[in-house]
Specification:
Two copies of one chain form a homodimer. Chain A is 45% helix and 17% strand. Chain A is of the alpha/beta class and 338 residues long. In chain A, α8 runs parallel beside α9. Chains A and B meet through α4, α5, β2, α6 and α12 of A and α4, α5, β2, α6 and α12 of B. The structure holds a DNA duplex (16 and 16 nucleotides).
Chain lengths: 338, 338
DNA sequence: TTGAAAGCGCTAACAA
DNA sequence: TTGTTAGCGCTTTCAA
């Protein structure tokens, strides 16, 4: 049998209350007893039972991270930031990676009711108004990352501004037929990136041509942000023949990777025949020499945890809404002045 | 306050024992009461408190996954398999991703003592004999993935065989100066891949030339399996000038990506000047058109969970040691007959 | 400063 | 078939 607080108390010749106080360094324990208890704990290799503690304290020291399973590198980078922050504050992390966006509510419900965690981080996934209300009403902390709800805390990047600078960069190189491959518009980052693209065109006085905008199919994954969809979208653009765009802003690096393949298969080269800019700056972008818009993924994860833990620990400050800046990373795929 | 089993019992006009039995579908509950209880549960939106349940049952329905933080895609793929299997069996997953291999023991200790989880999956990380014994003695289930210990359950790939087929493929194309870039030899997969490489040379009657073997520095990460180390290793090989190898087997795709960059920077081309084969078949390999040795990562994760849950649920079968087959995925980086 | 005892919300053994 | 009760291992009053 595992060693419990009773074993420690007996061995140290004190009551269990004292042991508990010693562990949780309460003020009113004499240095002498504290030392004795601590040494017995070391000797017996005692460690408090997490569940028992959770039950008594009504606090689990654990957070849930809910994330779409197919997110790949974006998620991996965010997760690194999350992990770093979580470990630093001695919390544990339960990962729910879900394969269909529709199941989001089911997991939110679980985390809300089961009380296995003290708060939740919802990444790249939409929350319904109904559940937003549940969280608000029960004062259960939640923060959204790469997602948005008007009543909840959220951390996103300036998607619109990122798309704007990407498109403007292409424009500044002399391109006039600039296309865009976007993710599914039910994703709000995808919507915002489209706005940025259109804004850049408008500023340059170039009319929007809807033949040049392809909204990705959902092939796999949540929202069309995947390689296959980028590949197919590019094929549609190439089918325009001579009227095809000379430059394309793609709403994610993964899709851009697919687009590059389609271009190469068509016997064309990047950036000579077609210039490309992606979005995210995941690791693959560097391998592919892809110009892209960098999202500060690590920072997003880190910041999200900081905010979540602050809420868990009783911070009552008003709603938190942070939009981080993006940054254009210029590599060879966008080419030079034409 | 959250709704408890007492609320349900009162509302349904039964004792809490009956509610408990209805929830956990015990046999001896009449259909009538069961239905009533269940409908009250739905009405009150009751969900059992995970901690209370864990405490009473001495079972948390949660497993820990301990993984080095820098593993990248390999881990991501394994994790997909893990997640799928875990969800299917209604377990939760606590993720501990650690930044220094030396901290492994610290986390193993935590999982072992704190009783927050029912078992642990240790991925790509070594366990000391001392801790292996702790787990064995306390009958606490653990399974190793991409790692090995002579007394514990483990799932690995046939690293040696994989390296052998890769090297033999290069040899079969006519190469005689075949080099290798390996990870740090304290990693057993790295050791095994080296053995496979040497075995292939021996079978072909080619003497081993130690100028052609580069053991990666640890630049970042656990074991030298990273891009930067591959890049530097390749530069060392290129420094051999005319005597440089004409083909190279690299012990991971990530390192191969770095090697490719070094080759391109030197103004050489792949596969014409130098043929390359990687290991893992992570997503990047496909983007880079890299011939590689595929590890069945998803299957490893899945299988590991299946085994772990079986142990948790009382399976007393003898030690489990599985070595999965690898598969050569031929793309363009290995070239054709010379 | 300390010990005793009452929960935390559940499961499971025991009675009925 | 059901209700009652004694834990599970801890924290936290309340007294002393």
């Amino acid at each position: 049998m595992a060693v419990t607080i009773y074993d420690v108390a007996r061995e140290a010749g004190v009551g269990i209350g004292t042991v508990s106080r010693a562990i949780n360094n309460h003020p009113h324990v004499s240095q002498k007893t504290r030392d004795r208890v601590l040494s017995v704990i070391k000797e017996l290799k005692y460690q408090p039972h997490a569940m028992a503690r959770g039950l008594a304290r009504k606090k689990t020291n654990t957070i849930a991270v809910i994330v779409p399973v197919f997110t790949g590198y974006f998620f991996l980078e965010v997760l690194k930031g999350v992990q770093q922050a979580v470990i630093q504050d001695h919390y544990d992390l339960i990962l729910y990676s879900i394969d269909q966006a529709e199941k989001t509510d089911q997991f939110l419900k679980k985390t809300l009711r089961e009380k296995r965690v003290d708060g939740v981080l919802l990444i790249s996934l939409k929350i319904t108004d109904q559940y937003a209300r549940y969280f608000l009403d029960s004062e259960f902390p939640i923060v959204l990352v790469d997602s948005y709800h008007q009543e909840l805390d959220s951390i996103t990047v300036q998607n619109q501004q990122g798309a704007l600078i990407a498109t403007e960069h292409l424009l500044s190189l002399g391109h006039r037929q600039v296309g865009m491959i976007d993710g599914q518009l039910k994703s709000s980052p995808a919507q915002d990136r489209l706005l940025g693209y259109k804004a850049a065109l408008a500023k340059a006085g170039i009319p929007f041509d809807d033949r040049y905008l392809i909204i990705s199919d959902i092939v796999t994954g949540q929202d069309g942000f995947n390689r296959e969809s980028g590949y197919r979208a590019m094929q549609r653009l190439l089918a325009l023949g001579d009227e095809r765009p000379t430059a394309i802003f793609v709403s994610s690096d993964i899709q851009a990777a697919g687009a590059l393949r389609a271009i190469h298969e068509a016997g064309l080269t990047v950036p000579e025949d077609i210039a490309i800019i992606g979005f995210d700056d995941v690791e693959i972008a560097e391998y592919l020499d892809l110009t892209t818009v960098r999202q500060p993924m690590y920072e997003m994860g880190q910041l999200a945890v900081k905010r979540l833990l602050a809420c868990i620990e009783g911070d009552k400050s008003p709603r938190f809404e942070k939009h981080l800046d993006t940054q254009l990373i210029v590599r060879s795929s966008s080419g030079v002045q034409i």
